[in-house]
Amino acid sequence: MRLVSLVLLFTGWVAQAQTLENFTLTNATDNKKISLSSYSASPGVVIIFTSNACPFDRHYTDRILKLADSYAGKIPVVLINAHTDTEESIEAMKVHAAQHKFTMPYLADKDQTVVNQFNARKSPEAFLLKVNNGKFTIAYRGAIDDNAQSANDVIHTYLKDAIEQLLAGQKIQTTETRPVGCNLRRN
User: What string of DSSP letters covers 85-153?
Assistant: First the structure.
């Protein structure tokens, strides 16, 4: 096994963290265009694929708002809705954002370009991106925490822990967990 590892290392065939392509989406709350590259001065950015109608997303709404408030000015939190059902339209997104007083961008990915780039499977599914010299790589992906139904019964705060480790310049201990939520259907 060591020989194989050394051969792979010396031939340059070592898996590298995927660098994400820049994207630009429309913020449903104000119709402004927002690009991933607008966050290149931050140490990282949180992307959460979410929806208006999934019950799991409703369970997490308050926790996401609290997370965004806790890290305001440190790590931006961005919501992306890639669902294409009628109740997920941009107009419905505007209403949903207003009802819940979203303070973060709520981006529409109705052609599903970004959800496909991230290969997100569930709603909600969280991604913590690390920024290094203007390049974005996935540092954590998966569940926000370990209890979708009850915030009071959460034991492991996966996303928050990854954010704290990123901000402290530490190695992220848990880089992936299984997200729980509604399936993200592809067109």
Answer: SGGGSHHHHHHHHHHTT--S-EEE-TT-HHHHHHT--EESEEEEEEEETTEEEEEEEE-SSS-SS-GGG
The C-alpha atoms of residue 145 and residue 45 are separated, in whole angstroms, by 17
pTM value > 0.85: yes
Computed from CA positions of residues 22, 34, 31, 124, in that sequence, does the dihedral angle turn out positive or negative? positive
Q: Please answer whether residues 139 and 169 qualify as being in contact, where contact means their C-beta atoms are separated by less than 8 angstroms.
A: no
Q: Measuring CA to CA, how many Å separate 108 from each of 34, 50, 55?
A: 10, 10, 19
Domain 16-183, CATH among 3.40.50.1980, 3.20.20.30, 2.60.120.10, 3.40.30.10: 3.40.30.10
CA distances from 81 to 13, 32, 113, 139, 181 (A): 35, 15, 11, 21, 14
In the structure encoding, which two tokens stand for residue 70, read together?
């806790």
Phi, psi angles (nearest 5°) of residue 136: -110, 125
Instruction: Provide the β-strand partners of residue 112.
Output: none
Sign of CA dihedral 110, 57, 61, 48: negative
Q: Check residue 7 and give its pLDDT.
A: 36
Q: Splitting the chain (187 residues) into consecutive groups of 10 residues, what average pLDDT does each group show?
A: 38 52 96 96 97 94 96 97 94 96 96 96 97 95 94 95 97 96 89
Domain regions of the chain by residue span = 16-183
